[in-house]
Write a structure and sequence with these properties.
Elongation Factor Tu (Ef-tu), domain 3; 9% helix; 175 residues; mainly beta; single chain; SH3 type barrels; 6-stranded antiparallel barrel; 12 strands
Length: 175
């Protein structure tokens, strides 16, 4: 399994008790969608390592107690603290047509209201201020704020994103 095939579910915050349980903080919109984990991938030293979930118990709204198979003591659990927890992309819940996951945008055509097709999405970047749509325009990387006034519509069926680009945005990247 590669990082392109998984999404981050959360991270292991701390050891809970002496029997190898860990507290996982979930970073998802609806934690209840993941109430029955059979296995997960932990990122350890830059690699995804599979772990079987022996026991799972809700702790708080976004926190879950996990017990992994073969992790039976506080010391073994402590080695995993800080690891991010991942699941395969196929474990993501299906979304209605008007909603999307960022990874689904990659490869979509960006179509401006005035200019027509201007490029293909190569990624979505998260900055402290906002999310940025990253796309290739004639060999130049363009970063466009994913603001409601700019991002008009995402059409999953046609793999296109309709935008209203601010005047001069493309010039900034191509000049």
């Amino acid at each position: 399994m590669t990082f392109d095939e998984v999404f981050e579910l959360g991270y292991l915050e701390r050891v809970h008790g002496i029997n190898g349980e860990l507290l996982m903080v979930m970073d998802v919109d609806k934690p209840s969608d993941y109430s029955k984990l059979g296995s997960v991938f932990l990122e350890i030293k830059g690699k995804l390592i599979p772990f079987l979930v022996q026991k799972q118990k809700a702790f708080k709204a976004t926190q879950v107690l996990l017990k992994f198979e073969d992790i039976d003591d506080e010391e073994g659990a402590a080695d995993l603290v800080g690891a991010t927890v991942h699941l395969p992309l196929k474990a993501l819940p299906n979304l209605p047509d008007d909603k999307y996951y960022f990874h689904e945008l990659v490869g979509m055509q960006v179509i401006d209201e005035e200019l027509g097709a201007v490029g293909e999405v190569t990624g979505v970047l998260e900055t402290p201020q906002q999310f940025l749509l990253q796309f290739d325009h004639q060999g130049h990387e363009v970063l466009c704020p994913m603001h409601d006034d700019i991002l008009v519509k995402v059409e999953k069926s046609t793999r296109s994103i309709h935008v209203r680009l601010p005047g001069g945005l493309l010039d900034v990247y191509t000049s």
